[in-house]
């Protein structure tokens, strides 16, 4: 497989796990830019990558998969938060806060909610 120095020189070291891999994706290559890899790393991980830093600019398949899973999870959470806020606004518009409705489906100022 070669020495660690050779791996760093030829770009086979993953920026995230620092392991040598035969197949890596260049963070700032065409595919890396299309996938917004540097943006995702900077947003979701406690490290920052840039074109000008002296560290490897490649990511292995396993780390890329984990990064994409993190991205999907955050997108799902953000969409759920927007949906829940929208539902809350709809309830507020109907003059009924869930926390103010009692078990019978009434609030102090509103008629019973049909079941």
Show the helix and strand layout.
Layout: H1 4-10, E1 24-26, H2 30-34, H3 37-44, E2 58-60, H4 61-93
Antiparallel strand pairs: 1-2
Helix pairs in contact: 3-4
Describe the overall structure.
This protein has 4 helices and 2 strands. By secondary structure, it is mainly alpha-helical. It has one domain: 3-Layer(aba) Sandwich (His-Me finger endonuclease fold). It has a two-stranded antiparallel sheet with strand order 1-2. About 9% of the residues have low confidence. Pfam families: zf-AD. InterPro entries: Znf_AD. This is ZAD domain-containing protein.
Structural class: mainly alpha
Number of domains: 1
Q: Assign an overall shape.
A: elongated
| CATH structural architecture | 3-Layer(aba) Sandwich
How helical, in percent, are the residues? 40-55%
Could you say what the CATH topology is called? His-Me finger endonuclease fold
Contiguous runs where pLDDT drops below 50 for at least 5 residues: 99-108
Mean pLDDT, rounded to whole units? 79
Strand content: 5-15%
Oligomer: single chain
Query: Number of helix segments?
Result: 4
Largest sheet composition: 2 strands, antiparallel
CATH C-level name: Alpha Beta
Q: What value does the Rg take, in angstroms?
A: 24 Å
Question: What is the rounded distance between the termini?
Answer: 68 Å
Domain ZAD: 12-87
Binding site for Zn(2+): 14, 17, 60, 63
Protein name: ZAD domain-containing protein
Keywords: Metal-binding, Zinc, Zinc-finger
């Amino acid at each position: 497989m070669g020495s660690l120095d050779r791996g760093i020189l030829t770009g086979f070291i993953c920026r995230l796990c620092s392991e040598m891999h035969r197949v890596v994706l260049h963070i700032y290559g065409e595919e890396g830019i299309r996938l917004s890899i540097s943006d995702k790393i900077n947003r979701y991980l406690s490290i920052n990558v840039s074109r000008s830093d002296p560290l490897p600019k490649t990511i292995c398949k396993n780390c890329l998969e984990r990064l994409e899973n993190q991205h999907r999870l955050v997108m799902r959470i953000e969409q759920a938060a927007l949906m829940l806020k929208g539902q809350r606004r709809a309830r507020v518009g109907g003059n009924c806060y869930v926390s103010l409705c009692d078990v019978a489906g009434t609030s102090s100022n509103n008629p019973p909610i049909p079941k």
